[in-house]
Amino acid sequence: MKRLAWWAWLLMPGAAAAQERVETPETDRQPEIAVGVFEHGANFHPLGDRLFFPRTPPGVLVEGAEEDGTVDIQLVGRTAPIQVLLKPRLAAKLQVSTAGRTSFASVGLEWRQHAFRGRVYGQVGMGLTVIDGYSFTPDPFAPDLSRGEALRRYDIYRRRTAFGSRLMFNPNASLGLRIDRRLAIELAWEHFSHRQIFSETNPGIDNLGLRLVRTLGPRR
Predict the structure, then answer these.
(1) Residue 62 placed within a domain
(2) 127 in helix, strand or coil?
(3) For the domain that residue 132 is a member of, what is the CATH number?
(4) Does 188 fall in a domain?
(5) Which residues in the chain come in under a pLDDT of 70?
(6) Residue 173: domain span
(7) Number of structural domains, the chain?
């Protein structure tokens, strides 16, 4: 993904000419919208003990990994920086599964720090998320189930993750590369879990992806 972001910057028309024009004060004062593509369940967590996990063989179920490896589309809206709490942006995100798995709707704050005259930035954030998936998947091994109901539940058990709560936290981080005054590419990490606050079941999930970001507002 890092290589993709780098080559996109090199090949974008006008990127070289934009190098001397991009400055943090102008690119960082306007609201933004973004669209991204994410790997759902990427098995990567930069702050925890679950860094890279080997893929399980076909047919082997690991709790919390039922949805791994599918693809999500993410839509993002960000306000201009607000003048409190170290000037964060208010961000709203909708991350939709393309494989019929769990989707996420989040709101939160994101803080940004620039480098190289605004051409590169790092960003960290924290949000609250509501999911449309399962707090607890139905038990396919419960007694006295009909065969049809047991098969229906087993299909859910095999394909869907029980997150333990429909309300979750969303720590996130991204590394942005500005193409010009209007466009940037971000390599992003999104985590969703509730730290066993709402139940003992808390597998969490990590997603990695790329976003294309467009700055709104008047041209300067």
Answers:
(1) no
(2) strand
(3) 2.40.160.20
(4) yes
(5) 1-27, 47-62, 219-220
(6) 2-8+25-54+69-215
(7) 1
Which one, of 110, 101, 57, lies nearest residue 82 by Cα?
A: 110
Backbone torsions φ then ψ of 148, nearest 5 degrees: -65, -45
CA–CA separation, 115 vs 23, rounded Å? 10
Tens-digit pLDDT profile for residues 168-177: 999 999 999 9
Is 63 part of any domain?
no
Tens of pLDDT, residue by residue over 46-94, are 765 554 445 556 655 567 889 998 999 999 999 999 999 899 999 999 9
Residue keyed to tokens 């393309």: 98
Instruction: Return the number of other C-beta atoms located less than 10 Å from residue 106's C-beta.
Output: 24
Q: How far apart (Å, rounded) are the C-alpha atoms in residues 135 and 161?
A: 8
Taking the whole predicted model, whether its pTM rises above 0.90 is answered as: no
The answer to the question of residue 211 being in a domain is: yes
Count the helix, strand and coil residues of the chain and give each as a percent rounded to the nearest 5. Answer: 15, 40, 45
